[in-house]
Amino acid sequence: MFTFEITPSHTGLYTDSGSRFLQSPFWASFKAAHGWKPLCFEITVKNKDIFFSFSCSVLIRIFGKRQVSFSIAYIPMMIELPLKYSDTVGQAGVYTQLLIDFVAALKPYLPGNTVCVRFDPPFDFYTCETRDLFVNSLKIISLTNHLKIVKTKVDIQPPDTVLLDITQSPDVMLSAMRSKWRYNIHLAEKKGVIVHTYKAGDQGIENALNVFYDLYRTTATRDGIALHSKQYYSDLISLSASGRLSGGPLISLYVASHENDYLAAIITLFSKREAVYLYGASSNVKRNLMPAYLLQWTAINDAKKYGSPVYDFYGMPPSDDKNHPMYGLYLFKTGFGGKIVHRPGSIDVPVSRMYKFYIVAEDIRAFYHKKIKKLFTHSSASSHAGREK
Fold this sequence. Notes:
This protein is α+β, with helices and mostly antiparallel strands. The protein is built from ten helices and 14 strands.
């Protein structure tokens, strides 16, 4: 059993304390403007073998109105075990009990209508098999010890990614790429693709954001993915200006163009701990000029200059399955030479009998967006393509 000392604290300034970006005050403030209520706590954990402290951002989402409402508490990329307890698979039992006891201690600070606390455990596994062993161990331990812990079908954060060590020199990073990736970067440069970088307050940022959003709509239609409102991305960039005044992370918008055509754009976040490729979009024209490769290479070098030690490509299929609809994304992100990482995804600790109704509704919604809506989107795109021919 674990005991916890929990002290509520303020979200505070956006100072970059070296935490993962999803646990930063900057990200909590950003999500507060888009439907979430952030809570912040200082926490000390102890039992007979373990003692450590950490800060924790908890995001509350309320569904419904007044009497007919419920909440979930979401804790992204937390709780991290101290380094000496980092044998993650071997510590599955310890970690299961840690989550259960933490939720019990945290519950008095949460809204009374909270149905569950959702975690994204911040563990990096280097094979799908090891990741699955950890997740299955949690399930078995929970069942055996009658503990309430559930691996969700829906993951809030992408569980599979590529991490590129950018403490190396550019020449070393280039040599670690697939040869075709190096060729594509140089091809884009040779053919005259230009990459412009924009930050909050820069001249032309509004037009660049409009370009990004137009490209994102094209991408969403082509690939059947969801996108936020333009205000969502505008707020992210604007908040970065305030955050930079107190040492917060840097949000940048990169746009690749050729002659009078805008070809692709990405949004990145740089911090002391990590650089993250958050969002990307591309047009349907001049794809043979390989603008996406030059965009990423430009952002990687900027992140290195900023001082981030790693570049997270953030989200892709778990394996090189040629039948996966996003197989091309897997090839693109792995070709830059980084290390493939698999994370556990979202795990729930239910705290209400209403949880079973919530999870059914969530699964239905996910099925609609991932299967039905994509099917109609692709059918519509094919229909348009046929008429254009």
